[in-house]
Amino acid sequence: MSNTQLTPGVVAGRLEADDYARNFGDISPRLEPHEARVAADRCYFCHDAPCMTACPTSIDIPLFIRQISTGTAEAAAKTIFSQNILGGMCARVCPTEQLCEEACVRETAEGKPVEIGRLQRYATDSLMEKGVHPFTRAKSSGKRVAVVGAGPAGLSAAHRLAMKGHEVVIYDARPKAGGLNEYGIASYKAPGKFAADEVAWLLKIGGIRVENGKSLGNGLTLDGLKKDHDAVVLAVGLGGVNALRADGEALANVVNAVDFIADLRQQPDKSKLNIGRDVVVIGGGMTAVDAAVQSRLLGAENVTIAYRRGREKMSASTDEQDHATGVGVRILHNVAPVRVLGQGAAQEVEFAYTEDEPGGLKLSSETFRLKADQVMKAIGQTLTGAPDGLKIEGAKIAVTGAGRTSVPGVWAAGDCASGGEDLTVTAVAEGRDAAEDIHNSLMGVAG
Asked: pTM score, two decimals?
């Protein structure tokens, strides 16, 4: 029996064709040249640049904005890419309202920061659309490096290593390179083929080969990689999904939000995607918000995010939460799922109220139920398939310095590595810094 038969409310094609095109169009189109000049003129070009300090990749923000203001957008793009080779995607998905724009002096003085993210997109798009790659590869070093994982950290590391003259092979389990940029970003933030186009543009540096369909435990071993390469970078992300640990989790139409988003990203015809009438998303991060918002955009009538703690504890930014409520998503705080109910497929979720006490989260005996013909789990991801011998810290690969693991010759970067925040821009910075450390190690340069 199909899920649709079990739960008639989970169907495809809820909307008219024009609705899908509008709902999944670019949420924040690129600035026009005049708009960019006006936005750039608001920058004070602070000598101490708090925005630059707040950027995980340390882009020279005042410099690139000054370059835009003088009409040299391509020079601005090179300033950005010198620190963040995935600056195009980061301009679309980075939580600038929590990072550079929050630190902006204009934000402090007026409550309206310089539009750093949109200016970054204007600059990077201006260069990328010409197909120009701003960097040239150094003379071959004769060294070979393996990068496991073609997400933001792996791509960033590979590009920097290739630029230094090393030969790089990227291994990735999925059919396409890009990692979360390809499979995990809300479609309205990076519509079309931007993620794939960005990868193709990045590879123009040369010296990088991508092998898809390979991962640790599936065609690769850490010992084998070490034997065949001079260094190894593990940028495998977090492949597992935390369990709900509630009765009824195995019912039909209880799905992982990351899988829902990946399916949506890879489906060009959004009208073919099944979506429930009453959708409940459990979690409080960006994955939960992206899944909930896109459920509404696909035509779900009632969408609720349920989070076990208060609004201030949600890892999704306030702006993202406000965007969700703006499209009709309801957010419930201080509630935890205790069971999913239904005959073969989800029909309701029972929640208990919670209290966040010093000793931990406490569930109340008072409960309530929400209708739910589709339940999405967005309660965090876990590291899977870590090779034996690697030290693990806080359920991630333990690293010191610029990504050095407990195994000589092996580095780790991005979400799989300990420390840092699970952000695209942080992953890019970690991949870049690991590459610099690898280069120094391979070439005998003191770090």
From this structure: 0.95
